[in-house]
Amino acid sequence: MTSHHLLLLPGDGIGPEVAGEVEKLVQWFSNRGLARFEIEKDLVGGAAYDEHGVALADDALNRALAADAVLFGAVGGPKWNDVPYNQRPEAGLLRLRKDLGLFANLRPAICYPALAEASALKREYVDGLNLVIVRELTGGVYFGEPKEIVTLENGEKRAVDTQIYTTHEIERIARVAFELARQRRGKVASSEKRNVMKTGVLWHQVVNEVHKDYQDVALEHILADNCGMQLVRNPKQFDVIVTDNLFGDLLSDVAAMLTGSLGMLPSASLGAEDPATGKRRALYEPVHGSAPDIAGQGLANPLAMIGSFAMALRYSFDLGQEADLVEKAVANVLAAGIRTKDIAAPGANTVSTSDMGDAVIREL
Amino acid sequence: MTSHHLLLLPGDGIGPEVAGEVEKLVQWFSNRGLARFEIEKDLVGGAAYDEHGVALADDALNRALAADAVLFGAVGGPKWNDVPYNQRPEAGLLRLRKDLGLFANLRPAICYPALAEASALKREYVDGLNLVIVRELTGGVYFGEPKEIVTLENGEKRAVDTQIYTTHEIERIARVAFELARQRRGKVASSEKRNVMKTGVLWHQVVNEVHKDYQDVALEHILADNCGMQLVRNPKQFDVIVTDNLFGDLLSDVAAMLTGSLGMLPSASLGAEDPATGKRRALYEPVHGSAPDIAGQGLANPLAMIGSFAMALRYSFDLGQEADLVEKAVANVLAAGIRTKDIAAPGANTVSTSDMGDAVIREL
Ligand SMILES: CC(C)[C@H](C(=O)O)[C@@H](O)C(=O)O
Ligand SMILES: CC(C)[C@H](C(=O)O)[C@@H](O)C(=O)O
């Protein structure tokens, strides 16, 4: 049996707690002889800064480069508000994305019928919602240079960020979106601000060009501000939304919040396929943050992290059946009325992080 | 009686229709001798392009510079999808903003109890919602240079946009937000992405600095992605949100959509106060766009445009009582169940653009 090499980077806040529940799951799979994992663990974010003075040590990066997949918890917290910019917790995540070449970030926003009540939106707007935001993750304003603050002669400061996109960066993310739409409902909405941004103009052109190879997929273009609106007005109109790094950051958070259960949402960040092995680098992480306010209290919902592990099973380890198994177990646990506090409901049974993990394993 | 000098720029799509209803209102005020207006009209957007080959002719700009206030309809439509970038309809609006120095864009998101049902959000989340987004309007990625598309040696293209902010640009918009909060519920949320953008780092610093002069106002900092989330999760937590040009574009559209009645929302774009006269340049415009799909059919809701005129009465013409009168009339018309199609409700009376304008005048 091949052994799957997984790097666990729990990070800060509730990261370690929710990662702990995945470790139980891995143990369960190993005990049953259903799959073999080789697990390594390392530090990222504030935890890495405290230990090494950087948000991701070279050692951890090298481990990530060598792993079949990285499972990432969350980073950040008030404790590190004043660390220097280049060492801030987020820098660890950004370095991973960049150095692993994880250009395609897939963020599903799925509303579980059992949880639709938790949404601020009326049930009919979100029940059955199932869209994916495909966010470009290694370009745009996150990484473009110049990115600096300079002091002017008059003593004022001047800050600059630069958004850059080249043809091939847009092309490859567009392909990911079209391929994904083919396996889904066959619809892509491409979002930019071509009415004010040149990167939006190029984005729009290149997506149209790539679309010629995917005539079976319906393509619409939607300005990013309108996309934010439409997500609130009628989210079920969308299947796949493809957009740049910064718009993807905002729009995926809005989309996630529509479901009413942030604690449920996994995500995958994928690199290019290696033509020799057919493999791609990958990092999986929950959409939620490090939630420092509830860290260490057993209140966190581990299901987004468990869902991220299921995505790793499916996309990185070719264990689709095992992924189905995990996702089915999660659905059953929810249907049985077992809830962490964030998704608590009248009549349901509110449990701790660890009880939730155990409940999923019982269901398996 | 002083005569107020108003430039009307109806623009494209439904712009001329909704502007027409404001003309009726102006007529009404003049007939009663309640106020004197000198109205000029000019072209902007696609309409200006068709006539002059540019989205705003110098002549129109000069009129705008000379006016006490500009009332702007909407621009754009599929007809002008293929005009050159610098002549696209939006360029007219951007030129007005820049050349009039309208750095402060105030976008209220108010949910009228009578219309709360129209929101995708549950009533309790939006009923009584009343927040203002203060968006920086003449800086950031909208205007920064370089802004270009170049062809590389390998034939690929490379597009660049540049986000720039200087201390004083942030300072003056922060002051607008704090002053406004003082007249409201005393709370400002400042939104940026300082975890990935240097402009966000500077924004955060400068807002903190300005806050020292407004210790009676509560300040919180919220990352822009989280702000998008919180707008969906619990919009009533906000009073004033201050943010940059691009984030303001997205967040204000999300906020507007929460109210369920885009056709109701006015906005004001203000310049700096002239120290000599105490006056500021100003442009008022509805938040909705040109809606080419319903243009010319008498379906458009003129209330956002009428509300924008009311804002002009209050902020540019010092006619606060008259503004109150108009706003009261609008509220009464709604309460009486008179609705355009976009805000139609069971049992209400659905009327045309022009009937709605007449209904407001009857109420006056
Ligand atoms: C932590 C932060 C750098 C990150 C981002 O902005 O990409 C986060 O918001 C996300 O969406 O993954
Ligand atoms: C028309 C367009 C240029 C404009 C903008 O992006 O600012 C619009 O979306 C707005 O919000 O006023």
Automatic annotation (TrEMBL), chains A, B:
<feature type="binding site">
    <location>
        <position position="249"/>
    </location>
    <ligand>
        <name>Mg(2+)</name>
    </ligand>
</feature>
<keyword id="KW-0432">Leucine biosynthesis</keyword>
<comment type="subunit">
    <text>Homodimer.</text>
</comment>
<dbReference type="Pfam" id="PF00180">
    <property type="entry name" value="Iso_dh"/>
</dbReference>
<protein>
    <recommendedName>
        <fullName>3-isopropylmalate dehydrogenase</fullName>
        <ecNumber>1.1.1.85</ecNumber>
    </recommendedName>
</protein>
<feature type="binding site">
    <location>
        <position position="135"/>
    </location>
    <ligand>
        <name>substrate</name>
    </ligand>
</feature>
<comment type="pathway">
    <text>Amino-acid biosynthesis; L-leucine biosynthesis; L-leucine from 3-methyl-2-oxobutanoate: step 3/4.</text>
</comment>
<keyword id="KW-0560">Oxidoreductase</keyword>
<dbReference type="InterPro" id="IPR004429">
    <property type="entry name" value="Isopropylmalate_DH"/>
</dbReference>
<dbReference type="GO" id="GO:0003862">
    <property type="term" value="F:3-isopropylmalate dehydrogenase activity"/>
</dbReference>
<keyword id="KW-0479">Metal-binding</keyword>
<feature type="binding site">
    <location>
        <position position="107"/>
    </location>
    <ligand>
        <name>substrate</name>
    </ligand>
</feature>
<feature type="binding site">
    <location>
        <position position="97"/>
    </location>
    <ligand>
        <name>substrate</name>
    </ligand>
</feature>
<keyword id="KW-0963">Cytoplasm</keyword>
<comment type="similarity">
    <text>Belongs to the isocitrate and isopropylmalate dehydrogenases family. LeuB type 1 subfamily.</text>
</comment>
<keyword id="KW-0028">Amino-acid biosynthesis</keyword>
<keyword id="KW-0100">Branched-chain amino acid biosynthesis</keyword>
<feature type="domain" description="Isopropylmalate dehydrogenase-like">
    <location>
        <begin position="5"/>
        <end position="360"/>
    </location>
</feature>
<keyword id="KW-0520">NAD</keyword>
<keyword id="KW-0460">Magnesium</keyword>
<dbReference type="InterPro" id="IPR024084">
    <property type="entry name" value="IsoPropMal-DH-like_dom"/>
</dbReference>
<feature type="binding site">
    <location>
        <position position="253"/>
    </location>
    <ligand>
        <name>Mg(2+)</name>
    </ligand>
</feature>
<dbReference type="InterPro" id="IPR019818">
    <property type="entry name" value="IsoCit/isopropylmalate_DH_CS"/>
</dbReference>
<feature type="site" description="Important for catalysis">
    <location>
        <position position="142"/>
    </location>
</feature>
<feature type="binding site">
    <location>
        <begin position="289"/>
        <end position="301"/>
    </location>
    <ligand>
        <name>NAD(+)</name>
    </ligand>
</feature>
<feature type="binding site">
    <location>
        <begin position="77"/>
        <end position="90"/>
    </location>
    <ligand>
        <name>NAD(+)</name>
    </ligand>
</feature>
<feature type="site" description="Important for catalysis">
    <location>
        <position position="193"/>
    </location>
</feature>
<keyword id="KW-0464">Manganese</keyword>
<feature type="binding site">
    <location>
        <position position="225"/>
    </location>
    <ligand>
        <name>substrate</name>
    </ligand>
</feature>
<feature type="binding site">
    <location>
        <position position="225"/>
    </location>
    <ligand>
        <name>Mg(2+)</name>
    </ligand>
</feature>
<comment type="function">
    <text>Catalyzes the oxidation of 3-carboxy-2-hydroxy-4-methylpentanoate (3-isopropylmalate) to 3-carboxy-4-methyl-2-oxopentanoate. The product decarboxylates to 4-methyl-2 oxopentanoate.</text>
</comment>
